[in-house]
Design a protein that fits this description.
By secondary structure, the protein is of the alpha/beta class. The chain is built from eleven helices and twelve strands. 36% of the residues lie in helices and 27% in strands. The radius of gyration is 16 Å and the shape is globular. 49% of the residues are buried.
Length: 256
């Protein structure tokens, strides 16, 4: 049986508010995270993702109060990321109400964190967030994509496709693949990057970055995504969850 594609609103949280920009810059306020979470829950979201976008940059842990407040209202899975550095950080977020926890920068700095989290909590709770961009400034990778850290601010020179494959082998349960180049542009997902990661990693793949129309979500799934995630188009009413699911269903793609 083919699994239904999940539609996931993403709430980028900074200083207790949901924010959204373009290419991770020029952030603007999009509302209260708990209220938005409730709204998306009621609108038919299959899951929700909270990313504390300044936690790693500020060198602090994700704020658990917001996680607890949102989780108490939700009956769909909640993934939380930002500032996760240790298995104890994962434990803290799970106890606060998260169902899954995302890691990015800390796993790049110390890849064994992936296997440590998977061994302690199970792969099903671990989402690897890969913020990838096309190589630039003389950097070269085999795939043409490199991993970035600190909210897309720093290039690493690490091949994004190879990193996704290694992380899948090490025990991550899902990969959240976000295109820094497409993020917030509403010009469509980076389909080439989705196809490349899909071919290399055998875990569920969540596509993120660039959605502007309902058709863009269809294209991402056809390129290999198991779930589709977006922020600004949902926050500012450009596209609704219902419209995305209708477009997916119209293309013969199973939805919930």
């Amino acid at each position: 049986m083919t699994l239904a594609v999940r539609v996931i609103p993403c709430l980028d949280v900074d200083a207790g508010r949901v924010v959204k920009g373009v290419n991770f810059e020029n952030l603007r306020d999009a509302g209260d995270p708990v209220e938005l979470a409730q709204r998306y829950h009621d609108a038919g979201a299959d899951e929700l993702t909270f990313l504390d976008v300044s936690a790693t940059v500020d060198g602090r842990a994700t704020t658990t109060e917001i996680v607890s407040a949102a989780a108490s209202r939700l009956s769909v899975p909640l993934t939380v990321g930002g500032g996760v550095r240790t298995t104890d950080d994962v434990d803290r977020l799970l106890r606060a109400g998260a169902d899954k926890v995302g890691v990015n920068t800390a796993a790049i700095a110390r890849p064994e964190l992936i296997s440590e989290i998977a061994a302690r909590f199970g792969s099903q709770v671990l989402v690897l967030s890969v913020d990838a961009r096309r190589t630039r400034d003389g950097a070269r990778t085999a795939s043409g994509y490199e991993v970035t850290t600190h909210g897309g601010r720093r290039g690493t020179g690490i091949d994004a496709v190879d990193w996704a494959a290694r992380a899948a082998a090490a025990g991550v349960g899902e990969i959240l693949l976000n295109s820094i180049d497409a993020d917030g542009t509403n010009a469509g997902f980076d389909l080439e990057m989705i196809r490349a990661v899909r071919a290399a990693a055998d875990v569920p793949l969540i596509a993120s970055g660039g959605a502007g129309t309902a058709e863009h979500f269809v294209e991402a799934v056809q390129a290999g995504a198991d779930a589709v995630l977006a922020a600004s188009v949902f926050h500012f009413g450009t596209v609704t969850i219902a419209e995305v699911k209708a477009a997916l269903a119209g293309a013969g793609i199973p939805v919930r």
